[in-house]
Amino acid sequence: MGSVWGNAIKLSIFGESHGGGIGCVLDGFPAGVPYDEAFILAEMDRRAPGKNRQSTARREKDLPKVLSGVFEGKTSGAPISCVIENTDTRSKDYRNLIEQPRPGHADYTGRVRYQGCNDYRGGGHFSGRLTAPLVFAGAMCKLFLRSKGIEVGSHISAIGQIMDTPFDDVHVPTELLAKLRTQAYPVINPRAEEAMLVQIDQAREAQDSVGGIIECAVTGMPVGIGSPMLSPVEGRLSSILFSVPAVKGVEFGAGFSIAAMRGSEANDCMYLDGDTVKTETNNNGGILGGITNGMPIIVRAAIKPTPSISREQRTLHLIDQQVEPLVIKGRHDPCIVTRAAPVIEAAVAVAVTDLYLEAYGYARS
Amino acid sequence: MGSVWGNAIKLSIFGESHGGGIGCVLDGFPAGVPYDEAFILAEMDRRAPGKNRQSTARREKDLPKVLSGVFEGKTSGAPISCVIENTDTRSKDYRNLIEQPRPGHADYTGRVRYQGCNDYRGGGHFSGRLTAPLVFAGAMCKLFLRSKGIEVGSHISAIGQIMDTPFDDVHVPTELLAKLRTQAYPVINPRAEEAMLVQIDQAREAQDSVGGIIECAVTGMPVGIGSPMLSPVEGRLSSILFSVPAVKGVEFGAGFSIAAMRGSEANDCMYLDGDTVKTETNNNGGILGGITNGMPIIVRAAIKPTPSISREQRTLHLIDQQVEPLVIKGRHDPCIVTRAAPVIEAAVAVAVTDLYLEAYGYARS
Amino acid sequence: MGSVWGNAIKLSIFGESHGGGIGCVLDGFPAGVPYDEAFILAEMDRRAPGKNRQSTARREKDLPKVLSGVFEGKTSGAPISCVIENTDTRSKDYRNLIEQPRPGHADYTGRVRYQGCNDYRGGGHFSGRLTAPLVFAGAMCKLFLRSKGIEVGSHISAIGQIMDTPFDDVHVPTELLAKLRTQAYPVINPRAEEAMLVQIDQAREAQDSVGGIIECAVTGMPVGIGSPMLSPVEGRLSSILFSVPAVKGVEFGAGFSIAAMRGSEANDCMYLDGDTVKTETNNNGGILGGITNGMPIIVRAAIKPTPSISREQRTLHLIDQQVEPLVIKGRHDPCIVTRAAPVIEAAVAVAVTDLYLEAYGYARS
Amino acid sequence: MGSVWGNAIKLSIFGESHGGGIGCVLDGFPAGVPYDEAFILAEMDRRAPGKNRQSTARREKDLPKVLSGVFEGKTSGAPISCVIENTDTRSKDYRNLIEQPRPGHADYTGRVRYQGCNDYRGGGHFSGRLTAPLVFAGAMCKLFLRSKGIEVGSHISAIGQIMDTPFDDVHVPTELLAKLRTQAYPVINPRAEEAMLVQIDQAREAQDSVGGIIECAVTGMPVGIGSPMLSPVEGRLSSILFSVPAVKGVEFGAGFSIAAMRGSEANDCMYLDGDTVKTETNNNGGILGGITNGMPIIVRAAIKPTPSISREQRTLHLIDQQVEPLVIKGRHDPCIVTRAAPVIEAAVAVAVTDLYLEAYGYARS
């Protein structure tokens, strides 16, 4: 329990937003995967703050310094460790939050959990900044998965009430995933993108924030991966997806809308495409009985609006024991969803790598 | 990985629908909890099939035989094991499904996963029948949690398009949870219940099935339970909730609808109620930063319509390599949601017990 | 933590000596392994009590009833569960031990650990009887390992001060392991066997007991299995070997005697035997850096003398708060080492199967 | 599996001897433990090489840089991460070892395990240098345990054939443990120390090395910690002790010598010392049925002689496929046992902390 995840691989994430550094250790990662630094940095850059008006003004290079596990340009099989410096920290912004915990944040729960000892500055270990090492780990896993023909990609499915065109869940082209990776805003429908940006601007102008949904796809997954009952693919993916701060819902395939379907609609009928068993629809999101069926895995994560907003709120002051006005200083994204896609993908990539390695082991060439 | 779940407690579920028996082992369960057999049997009965026209005609007593872990009327601290016989099995019903796997079922994925060796009769280890030992384990956990002032209860939030009145998420009375436990259909709003039954009848008449949503609440949870980052309360609960067959979505608090909220709406403002810190709203479902905040935990699970339907479907015949008509014989629930509430509660109770024991250990009196 | 072990497979053992039954669940076991009932029963029989004057007079058939995980003569891939009845229980023998815990037994520690709630009769969950399901699980694992060319066997290395001829650690013939399995006393040197039986007889006559050492070998192990640092093969094997009641020491290769060696003696020099890398000596017991090197794994476990002895002892009476005489009634082995070989082998077979599956996974290439 | 250990805490160790740095992450560590830097550095210094003629000439400061988990002088509850630089690396020394793996080292097994991709320089991830972060983690755990009245200490029990006076296993004074910590050679009997140094000198002069045994004690441990069957205290301790490179045997209490005892000797009779249940002897090493009994935990680890020796050996050359002479260049300890005591203590301290936290949890009462 804690900041460690996985079975065949173990990902350990450490660090506090304004501490001596953040980073991760990725244990059990296969040997011999070429280390593609440009790819890693591009992934880190997709998540990095400060790139546009939608995200926080904090600017950090987020350069991961790899201390171990990479040797002569390839993974060595030993634990991969990386450290990212905290370079742009303005701790004084957060002082008043000790006494008046921010609503929607972990200030109060963290304080109780750690008996008042936790580093509260900038959210400490709870900070969204901790997703940077997750993206690093996810990028490593994507490199491995790519060597097995498996791709992980995503788009912004919704921001506020604006919905993007959903993935064609029975056929998600690799080219589309590649294109989305390079977009400033990974949205399929350009008109939806425009409307989303308007929503964000309106939220910023109102000194408020807005949430959204990321839809993620995994293609090229072999059939027969995963386990029934207490360790299904959905459970494994969801357990790491809820680790991404602000995620409050996770659904697969038709998800919550399957509840209103009839069985005759929801059932995905099988057919043969050449030698491959496929399904005509993909309401089960590529997973049946907890096990992959070879169709794309489709998963969506609901992301709450950034709890840090500039407009005045009223909430409990712990010393005064009164509900009092609160104005949160500092730099805040009016919408973190625009930066969330690579984080969701990273979580999925880590989980899929774990599932893959359980199925095939480390000893197979 | 597989049919084992938990950290401080470990639940191992075994059995196949038409095999020698099903059951579970619950390891690490605290010593000294009085074994309330009447309560256990009542919980088993809530899940049991054959009670009304909404559920399968298969009738089984589902009497759990406790082999170990209970001594002189209390839990002994040793692993609690229970076995439930399979008494009413008609295996011949399922023979033709080897060659033509049922859509929406694990027939095909199970066959690939286990290289054709798995017991396919009645779904084998994938059968919904395997939720019976989960309900047993959940009932044991409820007895423990009750001794700590924690209650777990649920209602049918939706069947098809009919929605029940949601829980008042800032105050879920113990009496309401107790009342729902005793109802044939745990629905808060009697008119919704009527409309739901109509939906189910219509599905049955159409030889079809219908899905739904269960909303579950945990009350009395202490503040400060759980861990940030890679082991949040949401991740722990979701990993076992997706273990319940047919669950395709899990959300906490406002869930997916939080995506369309503004931060100023979504943030739960804190206040003091006597000595207790509470929040005015509960959009975060009792969990902030992965850690409980003392408010009720609110979680919803989307359940797909029973994939076994009587009406003719078309799907792949693996030998003929053709899409052919399929008529599924046997007895099927037109709606499993009516029996799902105790199963969802059981999964939640097991997870909450695990989280509780991690926090307080086994050595505290 | 508790009565569950493993990573790729999970073994859960349950039951109390005089309770409703004992058994195990073996999760994650590969599909398609033929179920050889005669072999399983022969293994159970090797451990069973009551066969000769060296072991307890308690006679139980110890027939494992397999409830799940075996289908049409092969493992199905679903959890394998087995239940063994407790047929010959004389609980009244143990009544007085609540107040005066037996020295060398878990009576006192179990009582504190479980706040006085544990089933104390016959040792309850601490009973040596719980090794019966371990032997069942080990027998299943041996069937799997045999299909991969891996054999696990052992002999009684010492009873009291009498030592058997050790294994030739660089070459342990499969025929020798097979022969030892069929012997009433698995001893290599017949003269040592005779002397050992004399030691046991002397202990019985003195109403006392005597300990010993089991030496176990694993042959046919591929090179490159296991992991360095915190999960070495030695650590994995030892963690389950110390689970066998009465084991107080575990050593590999030269073991404790390596401490008195010079490096030039201890180092195992490599050579090529055909295409295979071998070592001239095997002081490292087939493991270097926590990873198998292809030589036989050699491991020894020290087993303490049965703590239940007929002769009078003096120990604390918890109510009287006085050291008082204690006479333990009931049936006791003067030497459990004669029955320990299949148990030690079972523990090793379970661990080696777990290590093997981590390396090669569950999916066929 | 891999370089991660623990349940309630998770220790993740990373790094390669000549790579970008080594270190560890300690997850789940309790909040509020004062960070005593002087103590940490003193522990690191006890393990550090280059201090005397018995150890390697390599000199490194081994200063742990703490990046996270310590805030305002106390542990924050978030993962504690530390990085140690590799400052004095002479990689060219190790070049020839790719083709001719050193006997007694992991050169060959590591190469197979990681398909030739691992960093072989200086042993890479297999290097004894990786014990430095383990000592750091152990020092943190000692600080926690000390706050609970638990002490961990050790002495050199044997070097070659020279034995130290053993601990008085029923009473290990805290003062003795404190004194041993400050000694250059933690030996109880000064004459034994002298004789040990002579053994080491003789080995060095012979361009050879010598092994030994560390005996470790844990005092102040509460009764009733640990679990029976598959997770006993012995199994937990041994699984991390075998993670210390060169350990080939682990025993508790009387250990292997218990095999030659009679039951009447081996049984530890209980008596009352004030309110405390104690035993007259401690042949079970403070553990009965896998659970602590309140007596000191006594554990010994056998350490093989340094495999890197200066004198010429003969071993397989993988390219030439011939057994050829090998001379290992570089700097080598003729005896690592003199530096092993703090490492063994660290492993024990980590395991005991894990066991303690499982028993008492992370939440305050």
From TrEMBL, chains A, B, C, D:
One of its GO terms (molecular function) is chorismate synthase activity. It catalyses: 5-O-(1-carboxyvinyl)-3-phosphoshikimate = chorismate + phosphate. NADP(+) binds at residues 47, 53. Keywords: Amino-acid biosynthesis, Aromatic amino acid biosynthesis, FAD, Flavoprotein, FMN, Lyase, NADP. The keyword Translocase does not apply. The keyword Amino-acid biosynthesis applies. It holds the Pfam family Chorismate_synt. Its EC number is 4.2.3.5. Pathway: Metabolic intermediate biosynthesis; chorismate biosynthesis; chorismate from D-erythrose 4-phosphate and phosphoenolpyruvate: step 7/7. FMN binds at residues 125-127, 289, 304-308, 331. Reduced FMN (FMNH(2)). Its cofactor is FMNH2. InterPro entries: Chorismate_synth, Chorismate_synthase_CS. It is an enzyme of class 4 (lyase). Belongs to the chorismate synthase family. Homotetramer. This reaction introduces a second double bond into the aromatic ring system. This is Chorismate synthase. The gene is aroC.
